[in-house]
TrEMBL record:
Broad class of enzyme this protein falls into: transferase
Protein name: RING-type E3 ubiquitin transferase
Compositional bias ranges of the Polar residues kind: 656-666
Residue intervals of the U-box domain: 257-331
Biological source species: Rhizophora mucronata
Amino acid sequence: MEEEKGGLLLQSLIETVNEIALISDYRSTVKKQYCNLARRLKLLTPMFEEIRESREAISEENVTALVSLKDALDSAKELLRFGSEGSKIYLVIEREQIMDKYHEVTAQLEQSLSGISYESLEISDEVKEQVELVIAQFRRAKGRVDTPDVELYDDLLSLYKKSNDATDPAVLRWLSEKLQLVRIVDLTQESLALREMVDANGGDPEGSIERMLMLLMKIKDFVQTENLNTEVPARGNDVSLGGSAQASNVGNQKAPVIPDDFRCPISLELMKDPVIVSTGQTYERSCIEKWLEAGHGTCPKTQQTLTSTALTPNYVLRSLIAQWCEANGVEPPKRPGNSRANTSTSSCSPAERKKIEILLQKLTSGISEDRRSAAGEIRLLAKRSADNRVAIAEAGAIPLLVDLLSTPDSRTQEHAVTALLNLSICEDNKGSIIAARAVPGIVHVLKKGSMEARENAAATLFSLSVVDENKVTIGCFGAIPPLATLLSEGTQRGKKDAATALFNLCIFQGNKGRAVRAGVVPTLMRLLTEPGGGMVDEALAILAILSSHPEGKAAIGAAEAVPVLVEVIGNGSPRNRENAAAVLVHLCSGDQNHLAEAQELGVMGPLVDLAQNGTERGKRKAQHLLERMSRFMEQQKQAQAQTESQPQSQTQQPQPSYSLGNLADT
């Protein structure tokens, strides 16, 4: 029994050393020390193999020493693995802690190896000498302190402590090259390494990892700008940061800074397919899927336990990203085509499929009660799970539900449009709903249905409009005027549903004019000033889109919006201040009357504050307005000085005398 136990212990020691031998590509900051450590440990394998092959029983004293050595090897393996896969930034900033751990592991290994009684082991002299050499090297390593890269440490620490200050591009370039953070794959791996540290430590109470992520984001933004300015070609995993989302900015002097809210917290990239996890945080679908596949059960950002692995598409954020891309001349990111959300196969059981078939038969029944109850049950089933949504669509329910949109029975109509809303959550179903010519029926419900049916019709149009080509279709079928009516007359929920649908539809340039002609602008202005209305965020977001359209700009100007916009810039939330400034930029473009009005209302102080403390986009808009205000005020001073310098004789011109010849000439 003891012999078997000793054999298992030795096999475990051999396997641990073999695992250490497979670890490679150590980070440059620890490469020398960690390579030496790994090389020394690999020299122990012959000793373990000779002991295993020996016929002599291992003494109890040596078993205890070998168990201690196994613990030391496990510690060394974790240390080396972190040196290969861990955060490059952390290894530099926390170098003292890292080296303390290195020396601690080295001392533990030396102590464990020294505790073995080699005379009682049946091993060759060559192996014994080799082990003695390893022990001697460990002893020398204990007292040796290698000179660190002081310049790298100082520059990185300075950036870490002053993450909000401007940084010399030359320093950022040097850091990115020194840390080997110059490709998208390198930067994404670094972000994942930092997130995994938070997960492994059960949180980040001191916020040090979060500051490292902010530092990483600054390096990433610099590399992105550098790649665009030098027109680096994209190849596979070495694609320049931002990928196609930044392609249209090549040649510009400065790439737009991606708002933090639009970046995936894991990859720090502009999100293509944002999804919400059970904690309410949003991530890029492919990144959070990899996180979950790696066995993590927590939210990377909050470290809360995920109650479910379900991923819900964040359509609102996807629309905001599309708006930002349009406003900044950036090509919108393309969503991957093989996402799990696009699955077209359901795992429903045969019994469940049979139930759906029976409900579909009732949808075509000549009895009104049967149609109403079947539509209601399908509505609930479609709400319940993704598998149900796929199975219901596969069974052919969508055309049958579309037919019910024109029924005179209001309750059946409400069930049908809500069932379509629930089915539209599945990406594949969106195309099927459009193909079934559902939009005219949904618009009919939006005009004539009950209030709840109208609200759900608006929500359905919003869901369908996530697909860009559907924005055109929905606008062409006359959806915008009834949405404008719901925005004006609906319940609070109805107004919210109408606003989100209008916002999404108006990302398409052709729908902006339709919205203005439908009378949306006066309604939005009223919602902006309604006490306790709760629609300020939505109203300003839509106005910011419409103001870029000539008809929208004219309508907003006619609505006397400047005083309200100045008030929001001074006292609104960060996002509302940003949108208000964006609207004012368009209004003041080529219109000095609006500039003068804003100046008289005291906009300069709030603009200076926004330029210093606002969101990235808010800062740009505020700076743009400040430059225009400055030019306008300078022109005013010059005109006033010129008027005051003119002599009285020049300012009072004599009246011309006209002859018949003069009149004829005119």
